[in-house]
Design goal:
Strand content: 5-15%
Number of strands: 6
Number of domains: 2
Strand order of the largest sheet: 2-1-3-4-5-6
CATH topology of the largest domain: Rossmann fold
Radius of gyration: 21 Å
Structural class: alpha/beta
Largest sheet: 6 strands, parallel
Order of helices and strands: EHEHEHEHEHEHHHHHH
Shape: elongated
Helix content: 55-70%
Length: 218
């Protein structure tokens, strides 16, 4: 991969220590840090004024949060790429950021050198996804692909999207613990989804739910 030295970057995070640490890390990695912002509206103003090549955006900020800021950044700086850097790896935030035009979604748990490498990749036209995030997105695609043909409409219609996912994973013979790990939710949440889908399907056990699914598939 070609290293894009001198790429101009705007850092957006509400914690001063985090901004300082990122600015130092990025400068050492060959980036030119042209600005720092502590909240969304300030970030949009700076992006409009400075027109950076990249914006490194936190999601959890007071006032206008990162997800609400993302489309405004894209409007204010159409040529810049926005990469989310956050502690939040939830499915909802991930999908919302991608739909909002983010070129990357990185977790703050990534080693610093990996963050720098990912950002150079974005500067060279690549996407950037932390390994855990990429795996979660892949799971969504796989489950979504099976959902269309795997669950008949009259069953999928009475269940939530998450309950459909849980039902499909039960059909794959995954345990409660395995489902929790696959979907990045707690075992308690899995059990709640199972209880809800059993009630909606008017069955009393997982076995009966899977028998109903098999019968509906023909």
């Amino acid at each position: 991969m070609r290293v894009s030295m001198g790429t101009r970057i705007l850092v957006v995070d509400d914690h001063p220590l985090t901004r300082d640490a990122l600015a130092s890390l990025l400068a050492q990695g060959g980036f030119e840090v042209v600005g720092e912002a502590a909240e969304g509206l300030e970030a949009v103003e700076l992006a409009s004024e400075l027109q950076p090549d990249l914006v490194l955006l936190d999601l959890s900020m007071p006032g206008v949060d990162g997800l609400a800021t993302l489309p405004r950044l894209r409007a204010a700086c159409s040529a810049c790429e926005v990469v989310v850097l956050t502690a939040s790896g939830t499915e909802e935030n991930l999908l919302a950021a991608i739909r909002g035009g983010a070129a990357g979604y990185l977790l703050k748990s990534e080693p610093p050198e990996r963050i720098v490498t990912f950002l150079h990749g974005v500067a060279n036209g690549e996407a950037a996804l932390s390994g855990e995030v990429a795996r979660r997105l892949l799971d969504q695609v796989r489950v979504g692909g099976r959902r269309g043909g795997g669950v008949p409409d009259h069953i999928a219609g009475v269940l939530s999207a998450r309950e459909v996912e849980v039902l499909l994973l039960l059909d794959d013979h995954l345990s409660t613990d395995d489902i929790a790990k696959r979907l990045f939710i707690s075992e308690h949440t899995v059990r709640s989804h199972v209880k809800s889908l059993l009630r909606k399907l008017n069955v009393s056990s997982r076995r009966e739910a899977l028998e109903q699914l098999a019968y509906a598939r023909g």
